[in-house]
Amino acid sequence: MDERKKKISIEGVKKRFLSHDGKEVIALNGVNLGIYENEFVCVVGPSGCGKTTLLNIIAGLEHASEGKVLINGNPIVGPGNDRGVVFQQYALFPWLTVKKNVEFGLAYKYIKETDPSTGEARYRKLTKAEKAEISEKYLRMVDLQDFSDSYPKELSGGMKQRVAIARGYAMNPEVLLMDEPFGALDAQTRAQLQEDLLKTWDTEKKTCFFITHDVEEAVLLASRVVIMSARPGRVKEIIDVDLPYPRNQATKLMPRFNEYKNAIWENVYQEYLEVKR
Ligand SMILES: Nc1ncnc2c1ncn2[C@@H]1O[C@H](COP(=O)(O)OP(=O)(O)OP(=O)(O)O)[C@@H](O)[C@H]1O
Ligand SMILES: [Mg+2]
Hints:
Number of helices: 7
Bound molecules: adenosine-5'-triphosphate, magnesium ion
Distance between the termini: 39 Å
Largest sheet: 6 strands, mixed
Radius of gyration: 19 Å
Shape: globular
Number of strands: 12
Strand order of the largest sheet: 6-9-10-3-11-12
């Protein structure tokens, strides 16, 4: 028996879509997966196998056609402050500045504090100064502190993606759901953001669900790599990545790193061939 606490539980999840011409597309067909508290799960699998669909279901943005999805033992019925999402396409508000984009979700965030006179717990919204402090911190992390008053259209694709990442972190959610967040970035920026993410995960004790098509990235970040099969998506295999944390770019030099990378790549490649057929 695994003694770790399950943060998210996905049981028998099936997802059907109706396409524009009325045909049924089965995106997920019986996905079972438990995600433990503070664990870093990476999901890999061929394009169209249902990775984003699964993330959207955990985010509460889509509903499963069949099956159960639980967070902390409760059914997921919609989006919540306990989960922060970095989307595959950055989804920024064009009419808001970079800073306001990062602070957007914070308007819905409440912090718990103790009433000094009664000793009871109470909730309050963040102050303007607190919001500004948070957005500054994370814009600095993604190296965009000098662009906080710019509008998204003034930024490159990679910069917009970094704003979306800062926005996801700023919510300080228990669960970070990230959909190929570093895919569109240059190699140096990606390496830097991978290390920042590993640090954030380590110090802020988050549960991460991270989709990537980059097997090397998956092995660097994940404590477990979930390999999905070609559509309709299922969990094909789960690989425990038994490399010590804290990890950084030097971890890639460990011989076992390459063993994991090759084994996972081989496995995923079989599914790519399946799609081609
Ligand atoms: N809203 C929708 N309506 C109809 N079909 C959809 C919808 N969303 C997703 N699909 C279909 O579900 C399947 C899975 O899509 P999904 O976006 O989850 O794949 P993915 O694994 O994230 O792919 P990629 O790696 O390319 O991002 C695809 O066949 C897609 O066409
Ligand atoms: Mg996707």
